[in-house]
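Late entry, evening session. Most of the bench is empty. Finally got around to the prediction I had been postponing all week. Sequence below, unchanged from the version circulated by S.P.
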Amino acid sequence: MFHVPPPELVEVCVRGVRTGAAGTAPLTEVQASAVGAMAAHVFHHPVDPAAVAPISPAELADRVADPPLRHQLVAGMLGLTLVAHPPDPDGPDRIAGYADALGVDEPMLAATRDHVAGHRRWMLFDFARHSMFRELMSRERSERGLAPLVRQAGALKGLSEDRDLADRFRRLAHHPDGSWGRALWDFYEAQGWPLPGERGAAPQATSEHDWVHVLSGYPPTPLGEIQVTAFMAANARDEVAFSILFFALGIYETGAIHIPLGPSHEGTLSTVPDGGAQLADALRRGAACRADSLLMDHWAQAERPLAEVRAELDVGPKHLDGPDPAPAVPTEVVLDG
């Protein structure tokens, strides 16, 4: 769940995230635009991150007492560190100092440290043991047993099928036009992807975030993957929120994580227009969503009109335009300041 600081603490929080992420060095263009957009359009208190004074760990801890907000500040520092190219070698140790002062235990700090040091295998190990995928896989195992997971692993390699799972997805083609489930079917058709359970398809646990692509209106492009994950992270529970965003940034921003079904990218946010602001807008929209969009029961809502679900969950307009893979999410232009 995303936490908005009270107006009197917005500048303090910006100072903390800015100093933790970069010390006294200038922020990159992407870092500065993300922080500035967050302050203006999520916290509704414009702050120029380039103009604020540094703040020490002790002073930040003295000013910010709320534990969830403290955790979010550390996650923000880590997120900004991951969009710096090349990464700041002093970043993890500096952020660890802030985490200690704030009393925050964020497991992705270890994974970030591994990334900055170039230890990819240790990074993947630290990510996997603390990530949201453990919960998704555990939930599916409890619902369907271990055998379907084994079949899905074979399907990913093109060796077998999970016919029951594939048939469940095929039935989405018969859902009403405009429904969330039919929109997901159209999404798979438009991409030319095999359905979960078919040969060469992603596992069911991975497919859960495809429902959120459709809900949020972000396409499966490198930028869209970062956006949809930021959207999910902003309404996820605190203990898994940053691991979700870490995963997407690891694939599409740092290029440090490789997945079987798609190439990794480096520097996505710096190569698209308004990359930092696009990230911030996805966080804004995700924070407004009144459900855990990744872990909610998508199938229970599959036959409902997508527009109705979006309205009920407060999935509102984008502030920056972009392609939408489902029935259109409107864009509501908002001027800076």
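Two things to note before I forget:
Residues 146-159 have pLDDT under 50 and may be disordered.
Residues 133-312 form one domain.
Will write this up properly tomorrow.
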